[in-house]
């Protein structure tokens, strides 16, 4: 498990992520994840998580086509969706949605956010999990 953590950290650092941190809460059946954000433009981004801690490793790669500021604040809101996979017993493959809000501190490169991430798994078993609430703490790299 420790090797997967370090490999995931190295992969995120080498991928030119704009934000890097941790997500706490339900993440694909696990309880903590490496959390990275990769910009696709001013109002679109990819939000990726490499999770561990629940008998396997999970990967969520969510496209946030809606990423907008809340006027006159340092808050942004976002909506997205994408694939989700859990490499453990059982193997799970499905999709996740995401809706959240985050605060960008104006004087330090820190971002704190809350989101809800429901899962619909199709393979190896089919089920819906609406309990994917999480706290994101990320460091803005640029």
Largest sheet: 8 strands, antiparallel, barrel
Task: Provide the residue-averaged pLDDT.
Answer: 87
Count, helices: 1
Please estimate the helix content. Answer: under 10%
Protein name: Outer membrane insertion C-signal
Describe the structure.
By secondary structure, the chain is mainly beta. It has one domain (2-140): Beta Barrel (Porin). Helix content is 9%, strand content 66%. The chain is built from one helix and ten strands, in the order αββββββββββ. The chain has one helix at 2-14; strands at residues 19-27, 30-41, 44-52, 56-69, 75-88, 92-104, 110-116, 119-123, 127-129, 133-140. Strands 1-2-3-4-5-6-7-10 form an eight-stranded antiparallel beta barrel. β1 (19-27) and β2 form a beta hairpin. Mean pLDDT is 87; it is low at 1-14.
Summarize the structure in short.
With 142 residues, this protein is mainly beta. The protein has one helix and ten strands, in the order H-E-E-E-E-E-E-E-E-E-E.
Task: Record the SSE blueprint.
Blueprint: H1 2-14, E1 19-27, E2 30-41, E3 44-52, E4 56-69, E5 75-88, E6 92-104, E7 110-116, E8 119-123, E9 127-129, E10 133-140
Antiparallel strand pairs: 1-2, 1-10, 2-3, 3-4, 4-5, 5-6, 6-7, 6-8, 7-10, 8-9
Keywords:
142 residues, mainly beta, Porin, disordered N terminus
